[in-house]
Structures are given as structure tokens and as C-alpha cells.
Amino acid sequence: MCGIVGAVADRDISDILIEGLKRLEYRGYDSAGVALIDQGKLNIRKEVGKVAALEKVLSAEHAGHTGIAHTRWATHGKPTEANAHPHFSGDKLAVVHNGIIENHESLREELSSKGYVFASETDTETIAHLIHLLMEEGKSLLEAVKAAIPRLEGAYGLAVVHADDPERIVCARSGSPLVLGLGFGENFLASDQLALRQVTDRFVYLDEGDIAEITRTSHTIWNVDGQQVERPVERIQGKADSADKGGYRHFMLKEIFEQPAVVKNTLQGRLGSDHILEQSFGNGASDILDKVQSVQIVACGTSYHAGMVAKYWIEGIAGIPCRVEVASEFRYRKFVVSPGTLLVTISQSGETADTLAALRLAKELDYCATLTVCNVAQSSLVRESDLALMTEAGPEIGVASTKAFTTQLTALLILTVALGRRYAIDKVKEAAIVSALHSLPGTLATALELDDEICGIAETFADKHHALFLGRGIQWPIAMEGALKLKEISYIHAESYPAGELKHGPLALVDDDMPVVAVAPNDELLEKLKSNLEEVQARGGQLYVFADKQAGFKNESGLTVIPVPHSEEIVAPILYTLPLQLLSYHVAVFKGTDVDQPRNLAKSVTVE
Ligand code: G6P
Asked: For residue 400, which atom of ligand 1 is closest to its CA?
């Protein structure tokens, strides 16, 4: 979703801003822009489309030592140049903003009545005019931002510059993340530290409600009560260059192939030879887990599918009641919290607006504790939850989530054991699950050897308009995730059904133009699934079955079998995810879509 980068330095910062925007491209956007202050003059340049297009039109006049930049994902108003950020008021003040100002209509009316003329349809432009108005009343840039903030309802991460105060950026955070990057004689800010890794490894994360200003030599922060505060400086080690496809054609393919390694990283330090290491959950975790009598999972998108799989594990193996719900529904529904319920959020980014809102809501209710399964250590979900079980997927750049999902499943299986050893999981069962987890990275690597074979069948999907994905039991959410991947990146309409529901509706759609994908491990539902698939064959449907080698499927007319290596049943949902990801990937490549940044989608959805 939208991205913010800003810099104050003693050198031209236009390249730093463009590089920062490029590093945020993966989040999804449809226009981009920069505002640079040079010798007391504000220069703004915006373009619809990619950052590369913006970079091309920047000329020598677009230089400066202070500036802000933005990638916009359209919410209020179409993706046009006028609606792109930065927005301005007069010829000296510019603003970039992530999030949504909910009272923008009343602000627009008020500001219009005071003579402000709006150049865009956006909510953000009201912020620019409001700050301008407050400065006209005699306030400094910082005072004006401080006075404007209480007037804004909704979510924002924003940054403001003024040409008359050319060595300062003022920024504020409420509901949308912002981080300051500290340099030597220069300072930066961004909505995600990834944007600044080329210039610094020292970061200061703003808290909810913080207002901050950066100059070349200082950074100052005020908390929600207006008191000046110090926030810790965090050093982020590790590989800075996320813009590296490592020889793969797309980030998505690279990330699919990273899965054996990142699943291994996620297991690291959490498994003994025959038991899980509960102390790896963090201080006080055992006391919290002791209290848990039921689980409520809340998440969005792919992370929600991980939650659906976990429900089968937590109820079926751990013996604990578990409910799972998409965050956008959960947060607006009245529900009953039973005593001893653990609220579990699942999120790659840790910043998804609905999931974060659900966590904040839950903290006011009677949950016994909150735990997040998350991939970003500095994220809001991690900061605001009692416990965090980190997935070690590393930065995921492809908008369609792959390695984040399988590492979430890995972490959730570990959580299942941690909870279940207090209920239905005995030592023998725990040892069996731990053994399956130990061999999982190797099994995943074998599944990736199917790549060429899957590429071979993908072409037959490229001219289809619809596809059906079927699974039973715990493989139903895997079929859902397979369908989601296909629609996200190839734009083919794909639906998933529990195979037993086929004859209650979707069978009417089946004909010889309808590919039907089925997930068929050798489990206790295999025979039931086979009868469902015969119903498809009898109607001329084209079946593609991802089947355990021992499941007894054979290639025949209308039935293509993709043999998946055998695995322990408990980890089969993780294993079967990989061939489905490869199928979507190759179909999208055949169709020529933008695999890593599919149209209309964002990596991190920080607005409702
Ligand atoms: C967006 C992304 C999805 C992701 C979902 C939830 O829709 O495109 O890939 O699953 O948000 O994101 P989260 O970061 O909370 O897992």
C-alpha cells in the first residue's frame, strides 16, 4: 500500500528518495511523487504508474537537500497525477500521507469556505490546507502540525515540509507506521525501514500518537500527551538489499524456492529432539499458555487461510476449542468471549489495519492474553501483543504471499503442540509431530522438484476464465489458498470448495472448459474425495489432482495427476501448498501478468 520516504541532508537527496520508493514498490501502488526543497523553492513532480516513470521525468531542477516522496495506492479518487502525493497548499507547503482521514468531507467544506481551492479529490489535500491555514495564523511548521493533528479523525502516517523552513521535516503517526532513520549529519524517515536500508541501519520507531521532527543533526519526538520523549534507537543487522531477485525471474519464484530454508529458520531454536522448546516463546509464555482454554484466531487474506488450517490442528490434535474469523468481520461483530480464550492474530506485515484494530478491540475485552504470529519484529502487532511467535520468512516482496504462509503454518503447528501438551497431546504424539517438523524442510525441497512438470501443465490454464479448487478437511483451506494465489496473480476467477459441497452448487459449473484442481494426500478422507472427483469426471471436467504417490491415481483422459512426495499427514497442508503456488506462478507467467505486483493489490493493507 502507500509508502512514505523523507530525507534532510547536506547533499542532493533526490536519488535517496527514488531508491527508497523503489524499495517500497512491492507494497503495491499506482502513482508516485516527490517534493524537494531547493534554495527556498518547493519543486513537486508526480507521475501515474511506476517509480521508474517518475525517475525518468525528474530533471536537474528536481534536486534538493530536503524532501518527501510517496507511492500512492488509490483510495479517495482515481490514480491520476492530480490525486498523487505530495499534496500542496500554496507554493511552499507539501504533505505526504498514508491512511485515511475519515472527516475529510467536513474539513473540505470548512477549508473551502475559507477560500481554499482543492486541486485533487483526495482526503490528504485537506491536511495540507489545514496546516497552511494554521501557519497563516502565525504558527511555525511544527506548531501548525501539532495544532492540526487533533482535528484529524482516522488513520495517518504523514510528513510535511515547508520551503521557508528548508531543513526540517515534521511527521506524525496514528494508525499507520513511521520510522526515523538516523544518519551522520543527515536524517531520514519512512513508512518502512526497508526504504532506508541503503542509507542507515539505525532506526527509531514512532509510537501511536507521536509527532516528530527531523533536521540534519537532530530528531525530536513528542508523545500523544505532547511531552517530549526519547524512543530507543534500534540497529537492524542483516542483509540490506531486498531488491535482489537472486537470479530468479520474479521475487515470487525466489520466495517459493526459499521455503525449505525459511521453514528451517522458523523451526530453529524451537525444537528439541522429541519435544518443542517452550522457552523460545519468550518470558512468561508458559504461565500464559497454562491459562488457555480456547483460542480465537483473527487475520486477513492468506494469513486467514493459515488460521483456518490451525483450527483443524488446534481442535483436532490439541483438543482445544478454536474459532477463526477474518478481521474485518470480527472487529464489527458482537461476540461472546469465553473464559481463558487466547486471541491469536496472524499477519505477515504486522500492520494490516483490520487485524490491528481487532487486536486493539480484544485488549479491551476479557481475553486471557494476546499472541501474534508475525513476520516483522518491529511491527505494531508485535509491539502491542503479549506474546509474539515470529515467522522467520525474511522480507517477502512478491505481493502474493508464499513463504510467509508456510512459515505461519510452521509456527502455528508449534503453537498447537505448546497448547496441546496441556490437553490432548501426550509425549509420544509430541515426539511424532516434532519428528515430522524436523524432516519438513527436506520434504519441501523435494516438492520443489515438481517445478518443470507443473510448468508443463500451466499452459493449459492460461486461456481459461474460471477454475475450481477442491480439498477436504484440513486441505480445504489449502485449496482456498491455491485459488486465492491463482486469482491474485493470473486474474483467472478461481473458487474453492470443500469437495463434499460440490453437488450443492458448483457442479453446475463443471464442463470440459473448467479446470478442477484437487488436493489429495493419502489421508482418511481420500476415498470420499475420490468419489467427489468422479462426479467431476462424469461431467467432462478437466481434473488436475495433486496426489500422494500412494493415493492410487493414474493419468487418463480428463485426469492429470501431479505426484507429490509422501509426507507425514500432520505436515501435508504445508507440503501441498508449494505445488499450488508453482501452478499459479507459471499460469501467470504464461499470461504475461505483473507477477510480483498484480494490478489493484497491495502487499500491506494499512487502511480499512
Ligand atoms: C494483503 C496481501 C496478502 C495478505 C493480506 C494480509 O491483501 O496482498 O498477501 O495475505 O494483505 O496481510 P498480513 O500482512 O496481515 O498477513
From this structure: 9
